[in-house]
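Weekend entry, working from home. Most of the wet-lab plans are on hold until the incubator is repaired, so I used the time to fold the two sequences that have been sitting in the queue since the last round of cloning. Logging both here for the record. First:
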Amino acid sequence: MSASEWADSVAPIHVGSDPSSETGAVIPSISLSTTYKQDSVGVHKGYEYSRSDNPNRNALEKQLAALEAGQHALAFASGSAATATVMSAVGTAHIISVSDVYGGTHRYMTKVASELSNLQVTWLDLDTVSEQTIIDSIRENTKLVWVETPTNPTLRVIDIAYVANILSNHPSQPLLLVDNTFMSPYYQSPLALGADIVLHSLTKYVNGHSDVVMGALILPEPSPTSKPLLAPFLSKLRFLQNAIGAVPSPYDSWLAQRGAKTLYLRMRAHGLGALSVAHALERAKARGQVRDVIYPGLPSSSRFDVARRNTSAHAKAWIDTLRNSIVPGLGLEESGRGYDPELDGIPFGGMISFRINGGEQETNAFLAQLHLFALAESLGGVESLVEVPEKMTHGGLSEAERASLGIGPDLIRLSIGVEDAVDLIADLERALDAAIPPVETSPNVPQLRFDIQPSDAASEVSDESPLATRLPSATPSEYGDAVKETL
């Protein structure tokens, strides 16, 4: 059976992890050797020097290709190294980029590639821009369109298939790259939507344990119907991976491969937890503590329809199995009905941004009261994190650039881990109450609250308690363990 015939949840566990033919070990060993014996000049077992090829990196790359339903994967020492390699492959040319891009990507494009190779960048709000504007922005030397969706940190959602269709029908057919870091291969499949290149900071969700810095590029197999630029671009990327040498170590490759095996389990917990927290923040908005909740999976989000279109087929199938279940944190326990994606929204990754009802003083007061959320940059680990983009991840942008993107002292970004959603909500509500006393709310607005003390963060429930229990047998006391549902 080939990797393409396996179920989506099976391939990441088995591709690149064949049992050892020598020992029968089911887990790949770590190959630390930097060089390899040749039987004679140029005759070897596929390996010469570890910068060029390494068994652990090759195994990881096979796994990554399977995760994104691609054919070629290239691993790098960081997401930034992957970005730099793409920019080197583009060379002296023009690209189009989404305006609300990761700060490190913006920095490399404007302060490195523009100086070293005279890269020219046109910035567009690709979530709202018209088709004609995109077409008019493509020049004769436009090689690439850079999409990050959802964007960081304002979570704008770009319709991947829409942009891909425009580019495929344009005479110059520039390549479409999608940074899929925020969604992971579980919730979004850019290649299936028409993208040509997928980029990941593997540091985040794919590894998932905050102990590896790594990046990757995944591409499909070039064919006679592919864009003319795809095959030579893939060849150049492979050449630059070896020539530049920004490759991950064998040990880091081994760690990332191990982490990716549980991606599907973790992403379900991240997504359900984020949806529950987003609902809790909407309730805090009704109490006057929050001004805006940004989570594309909410039905109230202007990006909800596009988010559903971008959601992968396997994630949609899983979400559909949750219908009529009780999902903790959504406020359904007393409503008499189960989960409905149309009414309650969909799990759409683990990232949430919100604007606190105040400024820097209220933000700092809120942060000081959190117990379960660590104040830290990065995202995608099993632990929940909180950060203030204005001072942290996007501090390198100018004040005017941050203002144009809506990044101010009131904007707070959450990376929802795999902890119990009920405990996370209690932690957030406690911190919000300390920073901004709630106002009176309408009796028609549901105000589900979770008053759990920090010492009770781990709910005590039976090992047989599911996360999503079918009505009508469920009772609120059964919803303590947030990662046991249909993972």
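Second, folded right after the first finished:
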Amino acid sequence: MAHTILLVQPGPKPETRTFSDYESVNECMEGTRRALTPMHPITRIG
């Protein structure tokens, strides 16, 4: 079974580091798209 961990550091300081845990790459990509859509509404798909 595949397992995907997304590591994110949105700011320059190490304190901004976080992670998200997903069961698959596809689930990770969907979660990333949902997280970014409110920031960039023009990228909405469907």
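Plan for Monday: verify the second prediction. The chain is about 25% helix and 20% strand.
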